[in-house]
Amino acid sequence: MAQLTTLEKLAILADAAKYDASCASSGTTRRDSRGGKGIGSTQGMGICHAYAPDGRCISLLKVLLTNHCIFDCHYCVNRKSSNVRRARFSPQEVADLTLAFYRRNYIEGLFLSSGIVKSSSHTMEQMIETARILREEHGFRGYIHLKTIPEADPELVRRAGLHADRVSINVELPTEAGLARLAPDKSAPRIEGAMGLMQGALLEGRDARRRFRHAPRFAPGGQSTQMIVGADAASDADIITRASTLYDRFALRRVYYSAFSPIPDASAVLPLRRPPLMREHRLYQSDWLMRFYGYAPDEVRAAADPAGMLPLDIDPKLAFALRFREQFPVDVNRAPRDLLLRVPGLGVRAVQQILSARRQRRLRLEDLARLTVSLTKVRPFIVAADWRPVLLTDRADLRQIVAPPVGEQLELFGP
Questions:
Q1: What CA–CA distance (Å, rounded) separates 303 from 324?
Q2: Where is the Radical SAM core domain (predicted)?
Q3: For the packed helices 188-211 and 154-163, what is the interaxial angle rounded to 10 degrees?
Q4: The CATH number of the domain covering residues in 6-265
């Protein structure tokens, strides 16, 4: 077999990495090389995000160490039974690529994952060595995200946080039954055990930083995970339940959702068609409601239909308001912040502006029009100095009135 060039390897392994959505670079510590030490940055103009057509962040050099894999996960294009072109980088090659791309201002960090070659621990060692070369031999101060392998030796998983800004361990699928069926080489208890180990190491690292000034930083961006949506029979309610449990148990920074995409030579147990991308979008919105809007998981699930699926034509916040109309209208001049956050069409920033403005005067409908994109969406659910919805809130056709027109492009993380 002919030896692949670096460019050919990059084409194969960058394309193989595109299915992992958890590559955002937020949440880490601020550092740069303006003082003359090292190279790279994690702030200001350092992290320059780019977005794929489907909205995924691809601002980092996002690549696999190798797409060889000894596992046979049905949904993975790189599974051992897949007939794909294989390639493999050495740790030094990935480090050299990262530095070369950084110096050309193409990227400001590295997102590194890998298939499993030889063994989980061997692969994890190779990924850690890549990060070590960048940090210790080249003084790289940019962003590094390492995808850790739960089947690897626990000490290796812990060591990843010494060089990485963020670590992540994918739970893969929302339910244990789905994981057992589609990823027979993986174990839900083992994945959660690795996440628990990482959480303990994160807490120890933060405690050490408080007690010892020069203690090394340990994964300052925390840990995240990803779930594949639509590969198994899990409903949106199942996914919301799983995500809320992960947030509570492991203090995750983010749970990412990735809509299943059909792959070449797919297994017969997989769906023939991908789920609507809007379903992924609605799950991100539901995640936002729990993290920033004060909704309990039960309340978000209440926005779903009897089958546990969130509506695709309206966002979950609006679906909740339509289902529980007895909680509305909300008086914008008197209601506390937590109730204002439940008004469809009002985001966190708009609510903060309302709270500030109403200290000076009573707010009218025209004031709210300056704070929201769609006053039509807000009006049925609020009371202002010059406005009461009267019977509008109880109209049978209210959903048709407030739903966005068909074909309208929605904001990725709109209220």
A1: 9
A2: 64-182
A3: 50
A4: 3.20.20.70
